[in-house]
Amino acid sequence: MTRLWAWAKRRPVVARIGAIAVFLALWELIARTIGDPLFMAAPTQVVAALGPLYGEADVVHAIWTTLWELGLAFALSVAVGLLVGVPIGLHRASNESLFPIVMLLYGIPQITILPLVVLYFGIGPESRVAFGFTHGVFPMIVSIVAGVQNFSPLLVTSAKSMGASDAQVFRHVVFPQMVPAFFTGMRLGMSAVLLGVLLAELYSSQGGIGHFTAAYTQTFQPANLFALIATLAAMAIVMNEAVRRGEIRSSRWRA
Amino acid sequence: MGSRRRLRAHLIQAAFVATVLVVWYVTSTRGMVNPLIVPALPQVWTEFVVILTRGLFWSDLRITLVELACGYAIAVGLGCSLGYAVSRARYAIRAFDPLLAGLAATPVILIYPLYVMFFGIGMGSKIAIGGTIGFFPIVLSTIAGFGNVEPLYLKAARSMGASGAQLFRSVLFPAAFPVVLGGLRIGFIVTFLSILGAETLTSFSGLGHQIVALGEMMDTAKMYGYIVFVVVIAATLNVTVTALERRGRRAR
Lengths: 255, 252
Hints:
The complex is a heterodimer. By secondary structure, chain A is mainly α. Chain A has helices at residues 2-10, 12-32, 43-55, 57-90, 92-106, 114-121, 125-150, 153-161, 166-203, 208-218, 222-250.
């Protein structure tokens, strides 16, 4: 027993998993005893609801569509973030003239324009991709600009003095310096894209995820609602984790 | 950033806004864009003035601000107490800080439909989502602030015979305060934005709901006016808490 305790004490992850287990157990207990079954489903009931939920073609279609929207919005954010961020970061003039505009746009609370985005792009996937993109592109640009700006010009000068060509300078000096910022931007951008796409998905009750969350709430099917949300949360966690791992890997060489 | 550089940045921002307004004015008044989607600029201005002068916004603004106050109180209460508790042991920090940081990176707004189910479509669900989302930056900054106090200071204070309360008041708190303050500011902003978002998603009242309702009635000029109004409110809140944070820092 004491050895087990000592083993756990060296591994904080044990306490982390323990806390999650206690939370789930409490939830199960409350849902099974005092919880109103019209509003609350126990974790075991949610897991049991996953199978039938994935059997419904419309739900699966909505989840796949969301995944596509997330991927597309993220790819667009990264591509445009690079295309805009690298030139702004590299040149002093464009940095001083354009970066304030980026910061101004970044500061607008985007949730206020969600109804406008839907007005422009309709209630289909286009509006969700657009809203995800406007969320993701700004953290990407800001990180890239910071990353490109941060490296010392001395490195470029010394590489050149040792006879490196422009292409070599970019490949061996500028690019490696940019990689960590690129991954930081991707991590922040991913978080933002998830927020934007899912907000837009939840907004419209006509179609997509929002349709099902609204329907399950109104017809008191908490197990289905929890299962659908748990699925999306799992997707979000996997996507976040993927870019976070990338970030850790990309900066390992510097340590 | 130098003050001249900051001035230049503000001038560029002003010029950009002016350009957007001119393009908007010209295209919308000459019928180059669909007025149902982009209404004429003068019309939006008229609606904005009407919203301000007739005070039509008061009931919605009051609801949103009450939700904000309640949600923020929950976020601060839970965030600071839990954060402080976790920060007391290295083991707890290593166990729970990554968990909380991971949760903070997920789109917590996903839980909102559940809150609507639990707390109804009224203010309860907005307060809950605002409190939940605002909680994360506050708890993380509290852990960071109280967890990273230089151990040497603590040792020195203890060896000079400081009591627990004295230690907290004279060493821990002053050291952690600036970090926690940053979290409190960010927490306030995200609480406000998530309450606006929740009102936009499903609601009967509040500023976010009003924008959606006007959009659904195809009253786009008024909707734009309302969006401008809400952006002004958000900017005002932002400037206020930033100033408060700066003042709080200076007071230490």
